[in-house]
Amino acid sequence: MISLDKLSLAEKIQIYSFHTRPVLNMRALFADGSPNYIQPSEPRPGDRITFRFRTGKDNVDAVYLCFPDCEIPMEHCGGTEVFDYYEAVRTVGEESLHYYFTVLGGDQKVYYSRKGASGSRDPEYDFLLTPGFSTPSWAKGAVMYQIFVDRFANGDPSNDVVDREYIYINEPVRKIWDWYRYPDSMDVRNFYGGDLQGVLDHLDYLKDLGVDAIYLNPIFVSPSNHKYDIQDYDYIDPHFGKIVKDEGNALPDWDRNNAAAWKYISRVTDKENLEASNAFFAHFTEEVHKRGMKVILDGVFNHCGSFNKWMDAERLYENQPGYAKGAFVSKDSPFHHFFKFYNENAWPYNGDYDGWWGHKTLPKLNYEESDKLCDYILQIGRKWVSPPYNVDGWRLDVAADLGQSEEFNHAFWKRFRKAVKEANPEALILAEHYGDPKSWLQGDEWDTVMNYNAFMEPVTWFLTGMEKHSDEKRPDLKGNNQAFRDAMTYHMARFQYPSLEIAMNELSNHDHSRFLTRTNMTVGRSGTTGPEAADRDVHKEIMRAGVIMQMTWPGAPTVYYGDEAGLTGWTDPDNRRTYPWNREDREMIQFHRDIIRIHKESEAIMHGSLKIFNSQDGLVIYGRFTDRDKIVVIINGEEEERKVRLPVWEIGVTEEEYMETLMVSDRYGYTIDKQVYDVDHGFVSLMMPGNGAVLLRSLPIGSHSDKKKS
Q1: Which of 385, 435, 427 is nearest to 409 (CA)?
Q2: Which residue, 73, 171, 205, 294, has most beta carbons within 10 Å?
Q3: Dihedral (CA of 546, 547, 551, 556) sign
Q4: Domain range spanning residue 58?
């Protein structure tokens, strides 16, 4: 019998991985679109690209880099004790490149794509590279923080909406005086007073938390608290900005006609207030930038609002100086073709227009019949990313719905990208999209998307078994390792790598239940179960496990305001509770500070490759790695403690290294105290707590002395 001590590490791995015959080591095969395996990773037309591929040591006969038009033999370029590396070079033109790898060993032929190693090729999983497509460097791995402005902080009570200031959806608006009050089931006309001054007052808190970019839900003039029904794209809403001229009164009890809402009309149509609010916003972005953070605005360009100055269905602008007649008011309005009217004989005051999903409060913008509208929105796209505002990007609301056809939609977003990037090349273009985003992520439209399919949904199903609205419970998906891996593999393959690096990875947002509430694994909504039920039976350890995944998965982890402070809530509108100032979960905030720090200090997490390990149900185990930095994340989605054996050799960890904990979370809390684990024949063994999460990093042997060994 041969002594194990005389075997190489590669041979030991073959034995301990239960490979008893000389077959291709599938788990050793690896490549992705990261800078570790493509240089340059964001090439320009005419660049020579070096493609890299990894195999097991002395384990293959040949590797080919395969394109639709050719196959290039890859040359052996070196290796380690465990792996061999192969390279091939190709000069690229302007066309996108679809490629995959073919590996030969003995009588085996294996195809390698974004699906991993397989005996057959599926073109849906080919790697894709588009010369000339790059995404903003600042957004790669950036920690974002989403703020629903009305509910974050009231920094300037003088700009608060007053009771009966105007009528919105048939009822008067209200000022809510109790900051901690649960939102009503019909909440869109209730205002708590949050504003941009409130955000400005807490910039140092956000900086201390570790935030890199602030994403603001809409802040342009709008009658609702959510402001997805824009009234004026040219100006920041004075209720969020500055009211320097405050004239007129609120509507009396007997009056429901907004044409007489003189206080509101004065506040939102008077140019003194509008210009003062824009000037304040320019100051706001300057202060954000001084702290090294960025600002992303919400662009709602598919539809506007019935209050919009182009439509003026509430007749707010009809008699105001400096405003043209709205399309609702007059057939001769210069904005007539901004909207689609069904009855051409109903003026004045024609309410027979196309509303998004039939909602008359949300007139759909009619781009195909108005070049002027297209040009106007493109100008808006440029305006806010340019001086003096210098915003750092756009989040695009329901972006795939814009226009009347998919053909026009793609054509418009190509123009939008060109306009915005010419004004600010480092501006981010990030779209809301629930379906397959691949056709918009070809390098000439969106940079990336809000990552529902390849983050929020798989993580939520695995950790909680709940649908993202808390509307459905699927126990069969809780802890289902295969379902998680299949979903992630498929949906991540819809991205080009530059898009994946900046994908907005959220656990919660303004459209879905709070993730902490999902951990109670209860179906519910505020209107049926009551808002109090969203607070009960939550599991902070599951929340922490979700955040650890969020902060270690490829993309831009995005915290929804208040999640870091323990905020709960069912889906809209209960998810829009106010930030719990003076009632925060301080331990949860400190946990977020610690895990964000770990995220930002790790080269592997910020820029490394991802490798998901094979594991049992109830477990998700993956590595993030570069040549210099190697991280392993273990998530136990079941309540029972269990022993796990980690094949850390798959990310290049050798017996010349040990593994040290960066963070451990369980039902009792979390710790960043260090424990060390030996690497044994390429593996590490440890006990995983129930509903726990462990984060490990490799370090060279000899770099520790007094740390606790396990």
Answers
A1: 435
A2: 294
A3: positive
A4: 22-132
